[in-house]
């Protein structure tokens, strides 16, 4: 870790910088500049293909290559040049426009007919919203979804490995109907998988329609062009869904939808972290010993479930910021205000905290082993749990007050197998039903739990 990381204020760029490297080229100032530069160039190229704009020649392969190379070869020196221009303009998008004009004037002959069409009829958010949409799309499909799939795969694998391990369930913290460890874990898998499916189906929107969304400047210059159709074609060419009705800004509703889905996924993971933490506390899981690692600065015996705690904490931070964005971003005064701009610049922080959490939970899952002995020990003497199947069978055969009778037998009592057998023997039910009940014990009273794990998809 060099001095830059040591002096960073945010742990995202400091302590956890290795976990967020893949986000830097997307959400850093450098990344944001590059995405916006790309949108400016793609719009310029789109304009060159419109036949009615006779003042702008159609770009040949040579010109298109030069423009594409400006994007491809964009580097930190270019970014610094834009930032230096911004010191004068005090406007970041205009600085990109001036940079691009200068770049083209150096590289393309007869550039005069081209530079006037850079940022043509655009408002800043025409560029920014499309850049952010592309950034979000790249992050979701190249970073977030692969993370979610890794987590799902790890949880599913753990569920399969534990599908036949009978364990004591707890409702309200009290002993309850047994399940299997695999079934309990598979519940989380199913919940998380639903969020993955929903995230895959959320649309990412974009707009390019001028200062207040009505193509005013476009039509003032070229009345006979169907700018509404041009806008649609351009946005969809970026593999985004077109938003035809906006004010000056794309209203960010889709970002709220995406963040709501991510929050649900993260919240389920918080629940998972807490439950695994609890099972480690109960010694249902052993933590693998890493000789060089230290759990406590003063208690040598300790191995802390730090990875699940770290994951929980960072998921909470990510969710807290996203919750603010969900409530804030869809609101903009009249045709727009700039309070959304500084909010949007924190999207990298949101994804950063989540990625730190995802790495941590994946590492934590690699460091736990099932403690079969303790799980079995905790379950084997809980014969009072069989009050449920006994009273249910009694109901079947019309025995009145079945629940109340089993409550009297088992509540706040020490119950053994002999107690259960004696009670079954005196029941007025068929003998073969008594024998079936006697075959049930705390370890095998698991219903379809094992089978349900096998049905995971």
Concise structural overview:
The chain is mostly helical. 62% of the residues lie in helices and 5% in strands. A two-stranded antiparallel ribbon has the order 1-2. The protein has a two-stranded parallel sheet with strand order 3-4. A two-stranded antiparallel ribbon has the order 5-6.
Description of the molecule:
By secondary structure, the chain is mostly helical. The protein has three domains: 10-122, Orthogonal Bundle (Fumarase C, Chain B, domain 1); 125-371, Fumarase C, Chain A, domain 2, CATH 1.20.200; 383-441, Orthogonal Bundle (Ribonucleotide Reductase Protein R1, domain 1), CATH 1.10.40. The protein is built from 21 helices and six strands. The strands form three sheets. The chain has a two-stranded antiparallel sheet. A two-stranded parallel ribbon has the order 3-4. A two-stranded antiparallel sheet has the order 5-6. Helix 2 crosses helix 3 (29-48) and helix 5 (76-89) crosses helix 6 (92-107). The mean pLDDT is 95.
């Amino acid at each position: 870790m060099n001095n830059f990381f040591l002096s960073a204020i945010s742990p995202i760029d400091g302590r956890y910088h290795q976990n967020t490297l893949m986000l830097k080229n997307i959400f850093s100032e450098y990344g944001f500049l590059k995405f916006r530069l790309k949108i400016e160039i793609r719009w310029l190229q789109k304009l060159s293909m419109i036949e009615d704009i006779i003042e702008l020649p159609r770009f040949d392969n040579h010109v298109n290559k030069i423009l594409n190379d400006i994007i491809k070869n964009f580097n930190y020196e270019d970014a610094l040049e834009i930032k230096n221009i911004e010191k004068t303009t005090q406007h970041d998008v205009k600085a990109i426009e001036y940079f691009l004009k200068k770049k083209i004037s150096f590289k393309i002959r007869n550039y005069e007919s081209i530079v006037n069409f850079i940022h043509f009829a655009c408002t800043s958010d025409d560029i920014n919203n499309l850049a952010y949409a592309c950034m979000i799309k790249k992050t979701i499909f190249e970073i977030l979804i692969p993370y979610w799939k890794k987590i799902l795969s790890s949880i599913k694998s753990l569920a399969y490995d534990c599908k036949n391990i009978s364990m004591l369930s707890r409702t309200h913290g009290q002993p309850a109907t047994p399940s299997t460890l695999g079934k309990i874990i598979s519940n989380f898998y199913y919940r998380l998988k639903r969020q993955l499916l929903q995230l895959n189906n959320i649309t990412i929107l974009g707009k390019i329609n001028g200062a207040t969304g009505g193509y005013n400047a476009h039509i003032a210059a070229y009345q006979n062009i169907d700018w509404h159709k041009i806008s649609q074609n351009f946005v969809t060419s970026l593999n985004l869904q077109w938003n035809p009705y906006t004010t000056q800004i794309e209203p960010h509703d889709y970002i709220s939808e995406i963040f709501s889905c991510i929050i649900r996924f993260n919240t389920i993971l918080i629940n998972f972290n807490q439950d695994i933490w609890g099972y480690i506390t109960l010694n249902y899981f052993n933590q693998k010993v890493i000789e060089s690692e230290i759990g406590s600065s003063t208690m040598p015996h300790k191995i802390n479930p730090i990875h699940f705690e770290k994951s929980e904490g960072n998921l909470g931070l990510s969710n807290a910021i996203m919750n603010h964005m969900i409530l804030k971003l869809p609101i903009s005064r009249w045709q727009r205000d700039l309070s959304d701009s500084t909010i949007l610049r924190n999207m990298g922080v949101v994804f950063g905290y989540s990625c730190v959490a995802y790495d941590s939970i994946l590492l934590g899952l690699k460091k736990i082993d099932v403690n079969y002995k303790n799980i079995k020990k905790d379950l084997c003497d809980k014969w009072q749990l069989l009050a449920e199947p006994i009273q249910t069978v009694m109901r079947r055969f019309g025995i009145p007050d079945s629940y109340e009778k089993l409550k009297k037998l088992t509540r706040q009592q020490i119950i053994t197998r002999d107690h259960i057998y004696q009670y079954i023997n005196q029941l007025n039910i068929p003998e073969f039903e008594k024998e079936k009940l006697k075959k049930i014990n705390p370890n095998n009273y698991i219903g379809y739990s094992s089978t349900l794990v096998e049905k995971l998809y």
